[in-house]
Amino acid sequence: MHLPKLAITEGDPSSIGPEIISKAFQTDLLEQAMWTVIGEKEWLTTLPEHPHLAVIDQGTDSYAYVKTAVNLALRGDVVGIVTAPICKEVWIRAGKPFAGHTEMLAVLSKTTRYAMAFASPKLNVMLATIHVPLADVSKQLTHDGLLEKILLANTFGVS
Fold first, then answer.
1. Which residues lie below 8 Å from residue 92, measured CB to CB, with a gap of 6+?
2. Which end of the chain is more exposed for a tag (fewer CB within 10 A), N or C?
3. Is residue 44 within 8 Å of 30, Cβ to Cβ?
4. In the predicted structure, residue 158 carries a pLDDT above the cut 80
């Protein structure tokens, strides 16, 4: 069986990302892909030894974790990226020019048409707005913007 190669980023080292990943790897998730976990050395050493698991120590910067994962994907070393939660405020205070993962992934992959989307066997969802305060959502919804998201969703390719 050919397993997909996936990168997973730790998210913020002091947040819930490491716990989420650790618990996920206590399920059969490890058997479903060849995983490259990108994160902080101290936490990475707590992961189980497993033939489907490799690690990349990237310090303590959640921004660097995502950038490393994107570079792996752009080189073809992995076919997908899974991201644990990050603190957008930390990125902003550190001068990172992105409101979140979605915008960063778009810029680094030179993608101009993008949206945040979620897929599951029961439901596929694409968001019309992302990283906007709830009070500002109605101002972001335009006819052209919604039409663009509908057309983009039509190309999403999840069945």
1. 99
2. N
3. no
4. no
Maximum distance among all Cα pairs of the chain, rounded to whole angstroms: 51
pLDDT tens-digit map of 114-126: 999 888 889 889 9
DSSP 3-state of 62 = helix
The DSSP symbol for 26 reads T
pTM of the complete model: 0.85
Which residues are CB-neighbours of 56 under 8 A, at least 6 positions away? Answer: 36, 37, 38, 39, 68
* Residue 118 C-alpha from the chain's centroid: 11
Joined tokens for residue 156: 């999403």
Vertex 84, ends 123 and 106: CA angle to 5°? 75
Residue 125, strand partner residues: 118
User: Can you tell me the distance from the alpha carbon of 92 to that of 70, in angstroms, rounded to the nearest whole number?
Assistant: 20
Tell me the percentage of the chain whose pLDDT exceeds 70.
97
Residue type, 122: K
Q: What pLDDT is stored for residue 66 in this prediction?
A: 95
* E strands present in 16-151: 34-39, 53-57, 80-83, 117-119, 124-126
